[in-house]
Amino acid sequence: MAEQFDLVVANGLVTYPEKTILGDIGIRDGRIAKIGKAGKLKGKERIDANGNYVLPGVIDPHTHPVYMDSIEDLAITAAWGGVTTVCHYAYAKPGQSLLKIVQDWKREGNETSCIDFALHGGLFETRKQAEEIPACFKEGVTSFKMFMAYAKLGWMTDDYALTKAMDIIGREGGMACVHAENGLAIDYIQDKLLAEHADFAERFLETSPDLAEAEGVFRAAYLGALMGCPVYIPHVSSRETIDVLIFLKERGMHVYAETCPQYLALTWKELKHLGPLGKVGPAIKTKEDQDALWEGIQIGLFDTLGSDHAPKDKKVEDDFFKAPYGSPQVETMLPVIWHEGVNKGRITPNQLVQLFSERTAEVLGLYPQKGRLEVGSDADIVVFDPKEEWTIAHANQHSKVNYCLYEGKTVLGRVKTVISRGTFVVHEGEFRGNRKHGTFLPTKAGKV
Ligand SMILES: [Zn+2]
């Protein structure tokens, strides 16, 4: 008698970084049990993926469930976008205990997240909170974010505290995630513009200069090298930084780089009319920067793509200077990058899964449980229809925020089915997830 699986995803274009095959995936007990010839596997349940790509679930290494979307909400909107694992930034604000935040978020995620999740710690009072880093490792959290920027907001970690944290993280065997923009230089520029009563919307790019990002990346990487600590640079936004990353990587520095869909798909020129809605940090810059980021992807400079999903309550008419940074991105990430990347011939579907899944899993230390369609791996699977054309609108998104930066953008390719550890989260246009399903994933970040 033929082997019987719990679920079979049949006849799809099963996509790996190095190849694409036409085949069936057999799932048993939440894991991939077999990958066989198309049309051959038998299951209690079977879905036909004929004509569709079958991708490993997207791993989003950069999410913020503290604004309009809670941990529960963010997991739902992520799942609709084909994301099956998120790594949230658990921010410990000044006066808070980093360890307690990590423990609280683990509990809340285990109780409410419909998809699996991991956590990065986030330090805002680094000299003090750095002492708690070893205890966080015991909780399964091995990557920690600090800000070189936002001095005026009181978020900045100075070089003394950054070096101290990197020393501890390096010894424990993890990874420092650094928002690399020179905060004091940016504050000076902002103060100068304030004194001139400048129009901040008009001059936004001056307050997030590429040179300040490049300087921050260079300094973060060298301080990391000094203390033996791998460094992860989230949300790279500019051409200038590409040159720095090439230099660092050619020297064999232990640096990982992430960029985001907003920098690859939008420019400030296109967003300016939206005022504060398009205010994200670092700024979404120029066409030249966007082209350089795509070139960076093509030469393999980037390890990951992160959404930096940070939906905030903003209106077009709000005061631009006072408006917070951030935008909703997690649900649109895969279709937007498929459209801008694959459909426009900039990358192949294979490069896409390398960036969105396999390499991200490696960087976070989740591989091979996550990140690849392989026997023994978790059955986190996306069925993606490359032929369906649709128009992105806030109305068809699931974030709790009231806008979307891609409003009216027509893309070719849509997420049809999302499976997390063998169970449907999204299928046939319906959300079928369960808030008790998602589980905390301990990481081993920065190893490869
Ligand atoms: Zn962020």
Please characterize this protein's 3D structure.
With 448 residues, this protein is an alpha/beta fold. The chain has two domains: 104 residues, Urease, subunit C, domain 1 (Roll), CATH 2.30.40; 307 residues, TIM Barrel, CATH 3.20.20.140. The chain contains 13 helices and 17 strands. The strands form two sheets. Strands 1, 2, 3, 4, 5, 14, 15, 16 and 17 form a nine-stranded mixed beta sheet that branches. Strands 6-7-8-9-10-11-12-13 form an eight-stranded parallel beta sheet. Helix 5 packs across helix 7 and helix 7 runs parallel beside helix 8. The chain is globular and about 75 Å long. Zinc ion binds next to loops.
Features of this protein?
448 residues; globular; 2 domains; TIM Barrel; Urease, subunit C, domain 1; 8-stranded parallel β-sheet; alpha/beta
